[in-house]
Amino acid sequence: QVQLVESGGGLVQAGGSLTLSCAASGRTFSSCAMGWFRQAPGKEREFVAAITSSGATTQYANFVKGRFTISRENAKNTVYLQMSSLNPEDTATYYCAARPTPVRALYTIGSQYNYWGQGTQVTVSS
Questions:
Q1: What are residue 58's DSSP bridge partners?
Q2: pLDDT of 59-114, one tens digit each?
Q3: With the C-alpha atoms ordered 20, 67, 107, 40, is the resulting torsion angle positive or negative?
Q4: For residue 92, which of 33, 30, 38, 25 has the smallest C-alpha distance?
Q5: Residue from 63, 70, 68, 8 nearest 33 by CA
Q6: What is the mean pLDDT of residues 29-50?
Q7: Which residues, other chains included, contact 118 with Cβ-Cβ below 8 Å and sequence gap of 6+?
């Protein structure tokens, strides 16, 4: 089992920045591929970013366009999502997800993940 708790969401003006954190407990965090997803009201959940268990490889959704950075600190059992140049379209609940994996893989589809956090709300005002 892996328990995930997101934090760092809030209200920010367009053009601003936020850093989300996801703290993991339970199973060995360093063996988990991690991902960030988001869901806006009335929309489906969508992939944002993913990172391998070692942190060596990352992948982003096209809409990120260099604005977001995913990273992790295995010593702290934490994964981060640094977001900048935020716009109102980024308003959503952001979720982190974990998948224990024996290989250096990352995953971009929600159903590929085993564990999810409760989400943290990000609201960007215009």
A1: 51
A2: 999 999 899 999 999 999 999 999 999 999 999 999 999 999 977 899 999 999 99
A3: positive
A4: 38
A5: 70
A6: 96
A7: 4, 5, 6, 95
